[in-house]
């Protein structure tokens, strides 16, 4: 099965969530202020990201650069 990228934005909380593939037991690690990387508990594979204060970041035109797993395919 090919990985899929799921994107969800919570306007009330101003939170952008990106999830790669099916949900798994995961933990979050802060990689920058307000930006968290989601990792699979068993494999340590990157499974997604959460970005708090997304609208504020977009208004300031600050680029957000995150390295994705090499095996990710977006169609």
Notes on the structure:
- The protein is mainly beta.
- Helix content is 8%, strand content 43%.
- It has one helix at residues 54-59, and strands at 5-10, 15-20, 26-32, 35-40, 46-52.
- It has a 5-stranded antiparallel sheet, with no helix packed on it.
- The longest helix is centred in the C-terminal third of the chain and has 6 residues, at 54-59.
- It is globular and about 35 Å long.
- It starts with a strand and ends in a 16-residue tail after the last helix.
| Order of strands, widest sheet | 1-2-5-4-3
What percent of the residues sit in helical stretches (DSSP H or I)?
Answer: under 10%
Principal-axis shape: globular
The run of helices and strands is: EEEEEH
Low-confidence stretches: none
Rg estimate, integer Å: 13 Å
The number of E-state strands comes to 5
Please summarize the sheet with the most strands.
5 strands, antiparallel
* Portion in beta strands: 35-45%
Mean pLDDT across all residues, rounded?
82
| Alpha plus pi helix count | 1
Structural class: mainly beta
- Whole-Å distance between the termini? 13 Å
Kindly list the characteristics that best describe this protein.
8% helix, 5 strands, 5-stranded antiparallel beta sheet, 75 residues
List the helices and strands and how they pair.
Blueprint (H helix, E strand, L loop, with lengths): L4 E6 L4 E6 L5 E7 L2 E6 L5 E7 L1 H6 L16
Antiparallel strand pairs: 1-2, 2-5, 3-4, 4-5
What would a concise description of this structure say?
The chain has 75 residues and is mainly beta. The chain has one helix at residues 54-59; strands spanning 5-10, 15-20, 26-32, 35-40, 46-52.
